[in-house]
């Protein structure tokens, strides 16, 4: 899933986020992934060394695979794998099928939720009702943590969750979560408010938002400069606040 050192997977994630129409090149890349990267467990697994598929990768694949119109039949094993990886607390953790996990990961859960969103939006039928139930349970997992806090102590789970970064790759942050919730038309919930307040606090005097860091990984070109006002973060923050905060 890489060309040189640049990942085809993350390139396709970026193209999906840009809402690029499905070109012949995109269709060819998807066909190649499906032909060469289905693991024994049915998930997408580009690794030559790790037998178990990664649920984060599969959530992201479902996201762009559905957006670019992959045939439902070719998505079935991916859907089966994702459903098999849900934890009892409602979310997902890519370590479940490797080293074991009892508590879900915010990173894994948001990737799966974005994939389910696209699957449902595209009108696929295979196990759709199960995915809708899982969607609600995974949403509740994030809300139970107020998007960034321990559900036991109320402490910030990790400082990186409060940094606004684009592109996010596999990493979770509050803006990615809030943008997901507005994208599915999720109604206002008081448990979103702490994260919404942080977004408003981070707004610059000129009305824009910065990108606060860059995640590692080779890219074809740099979309944003860390520490500078960000078009992507500004767009995402504005649509979140327009949806949830009429006084913003």
Automatic annotation (TrEMBL):
Q: Which InterPro entries match?
A: Terpenoid_cyclase/PrenylTrfase
For this entry, the protein name equals Terpenoid cyclases/protein prenyltransferase alpha-alpha toroid
Q: Which organism is it from?
A: Trichococcus flocculiformis
